[in-house]
Every structure is written in C-alpha cells, then in structure tokens.
Design goal:
72% helix, mainly alpha
Length: 356
C-alpha cells in the first residue's frame, strides 16, 4: 500500500483539532468545532483499513492481532499512568475516578459506566477506542467472508449496530451508535480511490473549501449540540468532504508546500501518541495553574500537549511498535516461510505492515 501524504497530514489536523478543543474546554473556552477531529479520525480509519486489505486474503486473527499490537500497548501504558495519578492526586484529573473493576474494563476496551455513571474508560479520551474496537471486530468478521462479499458483510454488521443505537437509545453510549457509520464513509471513499474515481485538482479544492465552510457553519450554529447521538449528522459530512478533497488533490499531484507539509507529516506520524497524551497534559496544567488566564493557558496547554505527544512517539510508541512489528513478522515468516520465495515472503510481511 502506497503511503498517502494526504491521509498522514489529515491525521495531524485531526489530532491537533482535538488537542485545541480540550485545551479550550479546560480553560472555560468554547471550541466545539475541534471535536470534529474525532469524526475525521473515524473516517480515516475506515479508509485506511479497507485500502490496506482490499483484494487481499487477510486472516481475521492476524488482522485483530495487528490492530491490538498497534493500539493497545500505548493505551495501556497511559491508562496505568492515570490509574497511578488519580488515587495520588485526584484533583489533577477530576474527570477520572479509580476503581479496580473500572481499570480492568478500561484495559479490555469493554464499554461500561465509570464510578460517576458516565460511559467513559479511565483514560477518558480512550472512549473513541471503544468504537474503533467495535469496527475492528466487524472488519475481522468481514475478512472471513469471500472477497466479493466483504463489503456487504461489513456494511451489514456496522449498520445493524448503528440501528440498534437508533432504536434503543440507552445502548448508544456503549458502542451501538450511529458514529459507527463514519467508518463506512471512509470505506466508501477507499472504494472510490481504488477505482480511480477521485480525480481533478479543481474539484479537490472545491470539496476541501466546502468541507471547511460547512465545518465552520456547524461549529457556529450547532456547536451547542453536545450529544454524540447527533454528531455524525453534524461533523461527518464536512469531515468526509475534506478527506475526499485531499485525496483528489493527492491524485492530481497537488501537494502543499514542504514548509507546511513536513511538520504535518511528523505530527501525523505522532498523531496517536498526541491523542493519547493531550487530555492528561491539559488536565494537569489546569490543576497546576488554576489562576492562569485562558489567553495563556490555552496556547501553553496546546504546546505542552503537542510536545508530550511528539516525545511519547519518539521514546515510547515508535520503539514499541518497531519491536512488536519485528516480532510479529518474524513469527509470520517462521510459520509460513518454508517453500516461499523471497518476494512472496516480502509480500506476506507487507500485509502485516500495512494493517499495523
């Protein structure tokens, strides 16, 4: 799978927007549009997974192992850090409460209510990983179907889960949520991309501008709508337009200037670390600087969270992912390598690399 700079840079934009959203939120300021970064993440996730596996015979078990190896270790480390911090200094993260069962369920990505009665894991921003986990399970089941039936199976499974949330509102905070449909938007864009239907630089700029315009309008007019039940209708359409436009521009070879693109590429690489780190950093800063002006705390929190995410990526996520990736590929080639020519071995390893 060819690395797409548009995807990497939009990952950076999504992570930065969520970071700014929380920096403002914890300083008493409103930046509701920043929450759309999560919706963009979901759409990107659907795009990447389908693009990496389309037309390939991928084992559902290997897929789930690759996803768990990519997502779980850093999330577990951050959750355990919060589990140590909260009992010691509960005022540092007032949104989190520690209980042993709450910790265990959080580590296992099992949806549940926290001790305060809210449907959040111990690391509060990890709520999005619950939806990712649901989609991964549905995707793994779809991978078990024949190649020509994968799309129907995947759309059917995700749509049924979303429909359950629509009918039984009490279940939508536990994963049965229309938010899951955002992953299917990404899958649809991946299908268009693979068929070559996304083309034309002029159309690309038009979609990006339209998406940004709708996003700003939604932020100004609908920012007060806080329910996750409605957010797919508010944030998903402009996020999808922006991603589609960026892909069209990439297909047309219209990339941005290096002085903008290279920093975004670096932040895109570290986007998962940034997402995991940003909320604890912003919360602790609020605890340490209760009297600080929002005009100072917001940019300071944003900068500190970005720095923490980049450092976490360099010192923790990348070395950990590299070690786990080498181990997984070595095991794969050991099991399947006998009788395979080197190009075939490389292709087999590449499947794991793409899905990671």
């Amino acid at each position: 799978m060819i690395r797409l700079s548009s995807i990497q840079r939009l990952r950076a934009v999504a992570a930065l927007s969520v970071t700014l959203f929380h920096a403002c939120q914890w300083s008493g300021q409103d930046f509701a549009v920043g929450a759309a970064g999560v919706d963009l993440f979901f759409i990107i996730s659907g795009f990447v997974l389908w693009n990496a596996s389309e037309g390939r015979a991928v084992s559902p078990g290997r897929f789930l192992i690759a996803r768990a190896a990519r997502v779980a270790p850093l999330y577990w480390l951050a959750t355990l850090a919060v589990a140590v911090l909260v009992p010691w200094r509960p005022q540092a993260m007032p949104v989190a409460q520690f209980e042993p069962l709450h910790l265990v369920l959080s580590l296992l990505f099992i949806p549940h209510n926290d001790p305060a009665g809210d449907a959040f894991p111990l690391l509060v921003s990890g709520w999005t990983l619950t939806y990712e986990a649901f989609f991964y399970l549905a995707f793994a089941l779809a991978l078990a179907a024949p190649l020509q039936r994968r799309l129907q199976v995947l759309c059917g499974l995700v749509s049924v889960m979303a429909l359950v949330g629509l009918i039984y509102h009490q279940t939508y905070t536990f994963g049965a949520n229309p938010l899951l449909l955002e992953f299917l938007i990404g899958v649809g864009l991946a299908r268009l991309w693979s068929k070559g239907d996304l083309r034309g630089a002029g159309a690309g700029w038009g979609w990006v501008i339209l998406g940004l315009g709708v996003l700003m309008f939604a932020g100004l007019q609908l920012g007060s709508v806080r329910s996750d039940f409605w957010r797919p209708l508010i944030w998903a359409p402009p996020a999808a337009l922006i991603l589609a436009g960026a892909l069209v521009l990439e297909a047309a070879g219209a990339s941005g200037p290096d002085r903008v693109g290279r920093p975004l590429d670096a932040i895109g690489d570290a986007s998962y670390s940034l997402y995991i780190c940003q909320l604890p950093v912003v919360c602790v800063l609020k605890w340490l600087t209760p009297e600080l002006s929002p005009w100072i705390r917001v940019p300071l929190g944003f900068a500190l969270a970005l720095g923490a995410g980049l450092i976490c990526y360099r010192l923790i996520e990348r070395p950990l992912a590299s070690a786990l990736g080498r181990h997984r590929r070595a095991r794969t080639l050991h099991r399947h390598g006998l009788g395979l020519r080197p190009p075939e071995q490389e292709a087999l390893a590449a499947v794991d690399a793409d899905l990671a």
